[in-house]
């Protein structure tokens, strides 16, 4: 399954990343919607949900995230909805790990 989130806040560390494998972080913007896919092995038994997917969160609750590969790139987002059939676009699509 996938979860759509709206980015609420992003640290400056995302913009100032210089490694080639973190270049995508420069394109994150507050207000953008991102799609995050939950796949095996990130699925937690027995609930079969990914940690951090916002299941059970209050409407408009800010949830925290951190990018892999750059500990200075983190922020908050709001859960919009869960999609049982993933159709994440190639841009602004991520995986739970």
UniProtKB/TrEMBL annotation:
A Pfam family that the UniProt record links to this protein: SBSPON_C
Residue span, SBSPON-like C-terminal domain: 1-90
Coiled coil: none
Domain of life: Eukaryota
Protein name (record): SBSPO protein
Source species of the chain: Mystacornis crossleyi
Gene name for this UniProt entry: Sbspon_2
């Amino acid at each position: 399954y996938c979860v759509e989130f709206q980015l609420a806040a992003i640290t400056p560390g995302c913009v100032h990343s210089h490694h080639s494998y973190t270049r995508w972080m420069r394109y994150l913007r507050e207000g953008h919607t991102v799609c995050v896919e939950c796949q095996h092995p990130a699925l937690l038994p027995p609930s079969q949900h990914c940690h951090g997917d916002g299941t059970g969160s209050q409407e408009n609750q800010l949830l925290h995230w951190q990018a892999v590969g750059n500990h200075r790139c983190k922020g908050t987002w709001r859960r919009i909805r869960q999609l049982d059939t993933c159709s994440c676009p190639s841009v602004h699509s991520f995986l739970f790990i």
